[in-house]
Amino acid sequence: MLGTMIYGPRDIRFEHRPDPKIVKATDAIIRLSATCVCGSDLWPYRGIQPITQPTTMGHEYCGTVEEIGKQVKNIKPGQFVVGSFATSDNICAICQHGYQSSCVQREFMSAAQAPYLRVPLADGTLVATSDHPPKELIPSLLATSDVLGTGWFAADAANVKPGATAVVVGDGAVGLLGVLSAKQMGAKRIIAMSRNPSRQKLAREFGATDIVTQRGDEGVSRIKELTDGIGADSVLECVGTQESMIQAISSTRKGGYVGYVGVPHGVALDGEQLFYAHVHLHGGPAPVRRYLPELIKLVLDGKINPGKVFDLTLPLDQVAEGYRAMDERRAIKTLLRP
Amino acid sequence: MLGTMIYGPRDIRFEHRPDPKIVKATDAIIRLSATCVCGSDLWPYRGIQPITQPTTMGHEYCGTVEEIGKQVKNIKPGQFVVGSFATSDNICAICQHGYQSSCVQREFMSAAQAPYLRVPLADGTLVATSDHPPKELIPSLLATSDVLGTGWFAADAANVKPGATAVVVGDGAVGLLGVLSAKQMGAKRIIAMSRNPSRQKLAREFGATDIVTQRGDEGVSRIKELTDGIGADSVLECVGTQESMIQAISSTRKGGYVGYVGVPHGVALDGEQLFYAHVHLHGGPAPVRRYLPELIKLVLDGKINPGKVFDLTLPLDQVAEGYRAMDERRAIKTLLRP
Predict the structure, then answer these.
(1) Which of residues 292-311 of A touch B (CB under 8 A)?
(2) Which of A65, A134, A286, B332 lies 20 to 30 A from B301 at CA?
(3) Are the C-beta atoms of A169 and A237 separated by less than 8 Å?
(4) Kind and range of the H or E run holding B225
C-alpha cells in the first residue's frame, strides 16, 4: 500500500509501505474510512520536535475491521470501529481508574495516515458501533478518536460544571472542540481566545458566548474584566507553549481548574508562582478510550457535530498539502480520504 | 510588650515592640494563650528567604479577645478564638469558593510570636468557641490555626478518600498532621516517608501503616513496590523543595492526586514531564478558615490530638531557643507560652 512518512521538517512523503499484518494475537487490521492530520503532527513537521529517521505518521482513525488476531474477542471482521490514538488493554489498574492513555501496555499509534492500519490491543482500544454509520457522520466519528476526545478531556480536567464560566486558550481544532465540550458539560459562559475570524465563527457555533482577541497579560486582563475581576472557574489550555500555559493559569480564579492538553514544548512552571496561583492543574494525553462510548453515542444521536472542524478534505495521496494548509493556518484541520 | 523579631539568618531577638492597637474598625486585639514556631519560619531563619529589614515573626495563634473595632460583629471581647494565618473577609467570591487564604483582602499574619496580636478582618478570620476550652486542649487548638489546617488541606487537595492509599512526603509537623488528616479522611493505607525514629513513631500514632526511609528515586521505587507497581492514589507534598516535589509526583499513580503545601523554594516543574505524569496537582496556602469550624470541633470532641506535634514547650522569651531546636531537628515543633 501507499502510506505517509515524514523525512524531515516540512518533508512529508506518500510512498510504498509494507501492508500491515497481524503481529500479535491481540492485534486487529482495519481498513480506514477516514484519517486526518493532528495539530500535534505539526510539531515534527515544523522541526520543533526532532525527526531522527523517516517515520510513519497519523494516529486518528476509524474504519472497518478486516482481520483480527486469535485472542481478539470484542471486535469482529466487518464491524465499524473507532479507536483511541493511544492503545490500551482496558483492564489494568490504570485503565480501571479511567486513564487508558497511560495504560501499562500503552503504545501511541503512528501509522494511521494510510489506507490500512494495525491496531494493537484491539479489544481494549477499539469501540465498535452496532451498525455501519451513514457516510455523513464519518468526519464526526473520526473526530472522537483524538481531537474531540482531547477537547473533552480538557473540559473534564478543567472541571467544567453546569453554570460555570470556562475559558478556552487556543483556537485550533482541539480548542474549538473544547468549546463544544464545555457547552455539553453545561458551562453558562464560554470565552474563546482567538484572533482568527473563521475560527471565532466556529467557536460561536460550538457555544462560545464571548471572544477575546488579546493574548498574554492583555488577554488575562480582559478575562478578569469579564469575570468580576477574579478569573474563570475552568480554563482549557489547548496549545502547549509557555505563553499559553501562563495565560491559562493566570486566567483562572483562585481555587479554579486548569485542564491542559496541548503537548508542552519548552514549558517550565515556577513552583512558587503556581503555589500562589492556587489553581488545580490536570492534564496529559487524553484518555479517549474512557470517553469513546459516550462521544460516539452523542455523534450517532445527532447531538453534536464535531466533524465541522474539518474545513479541508483531501484524498489521502495529497496528504502533504493537508499538512501545508494546516501549517500555514489556511485550514483548521484536514480530513484525508483513502 | 516584648515580641519576636528576626534581624538576619539565625538572629532571633525578643525585644520591646509597641503594643498592638485597633487600626481599622474591622480589627480585633487578642491576648494569646499560646503561639509557636512554624516550619516556614525556618526559611528566613536559615537565610534561604532573604530578610531585607528587621521583621516581626509568628502567624499561628489562639487566645482571648481583648478589644474589637467598631465594625466587628461576630466576635466579642472575652471569647476564646482561633484564627487562620491568612486573614480573610470570608464574604468575597474567592472566600465563597472556599479559598479564604487567597481572599481579595488577604494579609498574611506576621507578629504572633508575642503576648498580644492585632488580627485584621476579625469577623472573617477568627472562629470563637462556645466556652473557654480546658488548658490541655490549647496545643491542639493552636495547631488548627496553621499546621493542622495545612496538613488537612494537603490531604484534601490530594483527594484522600475512604479506602485510598496515601503517601506523605515530609516528616515535619505538617507532614505528620497530613498523616492524621489522611487517616481522618478514611485512607486505608498511609505511607509516611521518614528516616527519623521519633517522627516515624508519631507518624504511626497518627495512623501511618508503612514507613519508607528511602528518598528520591529509591524512595519512589519503594513506593511503587508497595502499590502494585502503579503508585499511590493520593500524595501529600509537605516540604517544598525540587526533590520532594518530584518525589511526590513520581510516587503518584497515573490519574492520581498530588496535594502540595510546602512553600516551594527553587522548584521548577518541566511541562512535558508533568504532562506524562498524568497527575492532578493542587496546592498553595491552605484555606484554613474553611476547615477551622470542623477541625476545632474534632479537637473539642476529643477525636484528634494534633497538639502532639509540639514536643518542646518553652516560655515565649526563649523563642530563639525554640527556633534553634527546630533548625537542628532536636524538636519537631516548638510551642511558646506568653
Answers:
(1) none
(2) B332
(3) yes
(4) helix B216-226
Q: Identify the DSSP state of A115.
A: S
Q: Which helix (H) or strand (E) holds A314?
A: strand A312-315
Q: Cα(B101)–Cα(B92) distance, rounded to whole angstroms?
A: 12
The answer to whether the CB of B238 falls within 8 A of the CB of B170 is: yes
Q: Which of A102, A265, A271 sits opposite B278 (nearest CB)?
A: A102
Could you read off the pLDDT of A240-252 as tens digits, one per residue?
Answer: 999 999 999 999 9
- From the list B93, B245, B263, the residue facing A228 with the nearest CB is B93
> Per-residue DSSP letters for B149-166?
HHHHHHHHHTT--TT-EE
The structural domains of chain A, ordered by start, are: 2-146+287-337 (3.90.180.10), 151-283 (3.40.50.720)
pLDDT in tens, A132-184: 999 999 999 999 999 999 999 999 999 999 999 999 999 999 999 999 999 99
Work out the minimum CA distance from B265 to partner chain A, whole angstroms: 7
The ipTM estimated for the assembled molecules is: 0.97
N-to-C CA span, chain A: 11
B297 contacts: CB under 8 Å, gap ≥ 6: none
- Beta strand residue intervals within chain B, DSSP E: 2-8, 11-16, 28-36, 55-56, 61-68, 80-83, 116-119, 126-128, 165-169, 189-193, 210-212, 232-237, 252-260, 268-270, 280-283, 312-315, 334-337
Instruction: Give the phi and the psi of residue B220 in degrees, each rounded to 5.
Output: -65, -45
Closest CA to A106 of A126, A127, A120, A123: A120
Contact indicator for A74, A123 with CB cutoff of 8 Å: yes
